[in-house]
Amino acid sequence: MYDEFGVIEGENGNVPNGMSGFPGPGFPGAGPGFSFPFDININDLFGGMFGNPPMGPSRPPVRKGRKPPPTSQTIGITLEQFYFGHQFDIHINRQSFCSSCNHTGAKSKEICKKCGGRGAVVQMMQVGPMTMQTTGPCLDCQGKGERIMETCQPCSGTGFTLEQRNLTVKIPPGTRPGEMYLYPEVCSDHPEYEKPGDAQIIIIEDANDPTYKWIQRTGDHQHLQTTVSLSLSESLIGCNIRMDGHPGYEQGLFIHIPAGSFHGDRYCLSGFGMPIPGNIGKYGDLFVTIDVSIKPMERKLFTTNAPALLAPLFQDKVRTCECPEGALQTELLLHK
Fold first, then answer.
1. C-alpha to C-alpha distance for 34 and 277, rounded to whole angstroms
2. 225 and 112 in a common domain
3. How far is CA 207 from CA 177, 178, 192, 204, 233, in A?
4. Euclidean distance between CA atoms 254 and 231, whole angstroms
5. Beta strand pairing status for 199-205 and 71-77?
6. Which of 204, 256, 275, 283 has the smallest number of Cβ neighbours within 10 A?
């Protein structure tokens, strides 16, 4: 149509009668010098296959996420700190959007002259007999449509400033291991999210605290349990012991072990466990398991003297079994 008529608009800006529509495939009637007198975005024709989306103000805004995933930190504390409660501070350094430049990094800017603020430039390309255009990012402004004239001093052009925040962690007496404390929106600002992320502080048992080697929390973490080693003599006639390491008793907890406490016996001391959160003056229980360790000297003394001394007390409780004449009777020997 252009080659034949020279123009494509009629007197009132309309396409002349009989020339509406667009030449079909092959462009019949088009001469060797046929070209489009108007711009066609090659990306629009071929569904963006050339990978040059519109830049600058014409680019659709990127949808930001609401908030990044939380940042977690585990901190170990001692059994004593769990027992009495504990408080400590955490100092964190975070990046925040620079308020002086609104996170742009520029004190002053100007519209990019090369792209006119679009962030993209148009390039003409010849495809056979057709002249088409393609859109690409402006290299002068990196596709932003603006150029920095003067760098923002508070952030040195980064768009971020550093600030320190103080998080105070207060642990009530009797807190259970694994308890989490949440501090909303204290992490660094991120350009891909509307709000900064949360910080999670998780309290666990300190693996370097030696107290956990002989005293453990049990039940719903409100009870304590320990094992007491006794000799044979202490097991038979009873004794008093001092239990060290209990966080509530600095000078040790003195416990009376009754006579006849045998290996595997388990005693309960009510109210000697951990403080119960939310119940002032209430404590769990302390469980004491007996472990009897027999020394060679005690064994020898027992086998030589104890039978005669114990016979009046236990002789009638001992089973009797007569060995018939001619039957084999043997004696056990201790295997070491």
1. 87
2. no
3. 12, 14, 38, 9, 35
4. 18
5. parallel
6. 256
